[in-house]
Design brief:
The structure holds 2 protein chains of 2 kinds. By secondary structure, chain A is α/β, with parallel strands linked by helices. Chain A has one domain: 2-Layer Sandwich (Transcription Regulator spoIIAA), CATH 3.30.750.24. Chain A has 4 helices and 5 strands, in the order ββαβαβαβα. Chain A has a 5-stranded mixed sheet, sandwiched between helices. In chain A, helix 1 packs parallel to helix 2. The radius of gyration of chain A is 13 Å and the shape is globular. In chain A, 40% of the residues are buried. Chain B folds into 2 domains: 151 residues, Globin-like, CATH 1.10.490; 112 residues, Transcription Regulator spoIIAA, CATH 3.30.750. Chain B is built from 11 helices and 5 strands; from the N terminus they run H-H-H-H-H-H-H-E-E-H-E-H-E-H-E-H. Chain B has a 5-stranded mixed sheet, with helices on both faces. The termini of chain B are far apart. The chains are: A alpha/beta, B alpha/beta. At the A-B interface, strand 4 and helix 3 of A face helix 8 and helix 9 of B.
Chain lengths: 122, 286
Amino acid sequence: MAGASGSVPIVTIAGCVVVAIRDDLDDQDILTLQDELVEEVSRRSANGVVIDISSLEIVDTFAGRMLGAMAQMAGMMNARTIVVGMRPAVAMTLVDLGMTLEGVETALNADRAIEAIRAGQA
Amino acid sequence: MAKEVTTGSVLVEDFDRVLSGWLKVQASENVKRTDLVSAKESEKQSRDLLAALADVAPEAATADGFDLSDAQWAPVREALEEIAENRTERGVSAAEMGWFIASLKQPFFEILHEELGETSAELMREIWSATRIVDQVALYAIETLVQKREAIIERQRGEMTEVSAPVVKIWDRIVTVPLIGTLDSFRAQTVMENLLDAIVQWEAEIAIIDITGVSTVDTLVAQHLLKTASAVRLMGSECVICGISPKIAQTVVNLGVDLPNITTRVDLQSGLAYAFRRIGVAAGER
């Protein structure tokens, strides 16, 4: 996916792939992001993935499912995925939709998530 | 008769007679409620209202399109609102309020009958005119009373909601919300919103819900708790439900409700101890 790079910046910090999702992503962008994310995990042989969704005001069922899928994919590559910064309104909507994202780990912010991933390795 | 006698003119010319007649009827009809409103106050309210009517009625009452919501009736409406507010606070019922105003008809009719007794056509016309005014005023009074009462209920409901879900930060990274009474959908939603906002505000890692004071736990309440716990987890924090009494444990199991992946503790103390362990704070055993 060489041409699609840049739509969402993906950085690696201390062995963790960190991605901050913007609010204006459409479904195609999310699929692209998913591709790039697993590529990055494999290239860096990262052991953690942090997905920051603090700027998302709306999470629909598709985006919710994709978060779960990304966590599962990264997990198969031995990277622990943590979703961080979900807003209260988003959390309430997801729960109302019946999407509790059981398979996905969560944390308050990226800081805590990276801490948790590094602590898990030690 | 030299001058024309109308409802308006009676109000102005025989003001004191109307007032004293009205007060007398109030007493005899038992709408004075001297237990709630003092006689002096009643008299002042009646006088104010009549004065406002006397100011406006002579010109306005004779107009064909009688409308109490017109701008020129503003003083009457103000006087009524004041009375309604005063009486709402004292607990006067809507019927009493209506009859309180409607009893004004009696002195009116009496005077009109005296003045216009011989000419029945005019008498009928003025009786209609007086009835129209008094009834409109009475209806407005009832409506105002009901509105005031609804406003009070609304305010109290707001206050109840406010005090019913206080989220407290009891330690660094630990927030707790003690629940008391019954947990309906509306309150459950408020609790959830407050709790999630508090988690963001204080970056709490643990959210403790204390249900010691919740009287009954049925499937609905369990579902609310489950939803709240799920939302808390999605935010990246952990939910602990405390105050599971033996009775609640029995009901929950007998109802077949499953509380998966939720940490539950018997009381707030053990919940707090768990929270301390989770965030790595050493708590000395007592």
